[in-house]
From TrEMBL:
Keywords: Leucine-rich repeat, Repeat. SUPFAM superfamilies: L domain-like. It comes from the Eukaryota. The gene is Lrcc6. InterPro entries: LRR_dom_sf (IPR032675). This is TILB protein.
Length: 222
């Protein structure tokens, strides 16, 4: 056992005698630790002190210490959200990010953040999650740079919702929709203000209309 074992499941808020606030941390660990019962069955009961029921005053102090409302740049990637209560706690934090401008949520097994609103977010990275639709993304009216690589987005349905945002660059690499016919043309026609797709600037051929003559080139053999 290492001396740090007793802290392995603690968030920074649970460590006594410090005055660090949430907006001072770029990569905080916000995933809550397992229950005492689960730790017992794992044989890791020594890693967590017995929890006491938090008073209302302690809850208020923790909320002030977290200070998510004043975060401007935050990395909440790789949180290992394996249980439902972990996800709910994670969403509780996201709902408080009213001033965040840059946010990374990489590899968190996220499936639906449609109930979350990030009013000032300009840069969002949700690579390596489990989104299947643009409709499952949070509300991001000020978004400029959006990265969705390695999700499971099947179609471009819903992408036009970003037409009225200042979105400049979009990454959809390694999503099934990338293999759709005329993929780049369809994306740029849905988002006329987009400047870059998958790291490649908008090209003249990306603006050309669909090739309608294609249908007249088909030869039917009876």
């Amino acid at each position: 056992k290492l001396p740090s074992d007793s802290f392995k499941y603690l968030g920074w808020c649970d460590i006594e005698e410090h005055d660090v606030r949430g907006n001072q941390l770029h990569c905080p660990r916000v995933r809550e630790g397992p229950s005492e019962e689960e730790l017992f069955f794992r044989g890791e009961a020594h890693t967590m002190k017995k929890r006491k029921q938090a008073t209302d005053t302690e809850k208020r102090q923790k909320k002030l210490q977290e200070n998510w409302e004043n975060c401007a740049e935050l990395n909440l990637s790789f949180q290992d959200l394996g249980d439902l209560y972990q996800v709910e706690n994670f969403k509780r934090i996201l709902r408080r990010l009213i001033r965040v401008e840059k946010l990374w949520l990489v590899d968190n097994s996220l499936t639906d953040l449609s109930a979350i609103r990030l009013p000032r977010c300009r840069e969002l990275n949700v690579n390596k999650n489990h989104f299947t639709s643009f409709k499952q993304l949070p509300k991001i009216p000020q978004i400029q740079h959006l990265s969705l690589a390695e999700n499971n987005i099947m179609t471009l349905s819903g992408i036009s919702d970003f037409r009225h945002t200042p979105l400049e660059s979009l990454i959809l690499k390694r999503n099934p929709c990338e293999f759709q016919e005329r993929y780049r043309q369809l994306v740029f026609s849905s988002l006329p203000n987009l400047k870059m797709l998958d790291g490649i600037p908008k090209l003249p051929e990306d603006c050309s209309p669909p090739d309608t003559s294609f249908f007249f080139k088909i030869c039917t053999i009876l």
